[in-house]
Amino acid sequence: MQPTPDFSAPKLAKTLLRRRREGALATLMENSGAPYCSLVNLASHPDGSPLLLISRLAIHTRNVLADPRVSLMLDERSAGDPLEGARIMLAGRAVPARPDELPLWRRRYLAAHPAAEGYIDFADFSLFKIESSGLHLVAGFGRILDLSPDRYLTDLTGAEALLEVEASAVEHINADHPDTMKLYATQLLGSGEADWRCTGIDPEGLDLQCERATLRLDFPSRVENSAALRDMLKRMADIARKTE
To answer: Looking at the domain assignment, is residue 2 inside a domain?
Structure first.
């Protein structure tokens, strides 16, 4: 990644956390404490924390249950030399969902990975969230730095009303406004025509996905309830139409 005047480390970190659907998970071997690395699928919590669906039959799950300390690497997967793309290493602890958290985590994960519907309820599978303690970003020459969680996670304080309606809002958007999602993707985010669907909404933006491709639409200001969300979505649509 080449340095640019508008470079923002927190924004880049947030983008990778929201858009990546897979990553390299490092755990500690249960008996020896040796590092063990595996490939995992990911979704994102409304605050941006990675969500994992992992089986107790897998070594990494047994490791996590014995010692929850983990690290996770995400990268841009840019064309050419992969070391020229931005990447982050997230450090923290993998914690299982409490009963009251499970519906939200389950819905967010299935929105990102619809095929998991076929096995998410198997007895050996569980949802985990990585509660991070810090992040190391490498984004090119002179762009290597550490970030604390308050700089890359979304503060959900005061947004309880938005989280309560997120599921119905996503369902409504995908059922009744697919053309608006395409408009956001093509006119605001520079993507090609595709069947883009909304997979999640949080106070800072909206996530779009088509198969494995993902996009992130950042809101110009924070949204905390359904009325503000409706106004913001209309505002963004109006801006997109003016660019056609």
So the answer is: no
Number of domains in the chain: 2
* DSSP E strand boundaries for the chain: 22-28, 35-41, 43-44, 50-55, 69-75, 87-96, 125-138, 144-147, 197-202, 205-210, 213-218
What average pLDDT does this structure show over 77-88? 81
> Is 93 inside any structural domain?
yes
Backbone φ, ψ for residue 34 (5° rounding): -70, 150
Domain span at residue 191 reads 160-242
Share of the chain above pLDDT 90, in %: 89
For residues 72 and 103, what is the distance between their CA atoms, to the nearest angstrom? 24
Q: Residue 1: its pLDDT value, please?
A: 45
On whether both 131 and 192 belong to a single domain, the answer is no
Q: What is the pLDDT of residues 182-192, one digit of tens each?
A: 999 999 999 99
1 found inside a domain: no
Burial pattern 92-105, b for ≥16 Cβ within 10 A else e, equals: bebebbeeeeeebb
Domain membership flag for residue 28:
yes
Angstrom distances, CA of residue 168 to CA of 80, 188, 219:
41, 24, 19
Beta bridge partners of 31: none
The answer to whether 240 and 184 are in contact (CB under 8 A) is yes
CA distance 235 to 80: 37
Where a domain ends, among 113, 131, 152?
Answer: 152
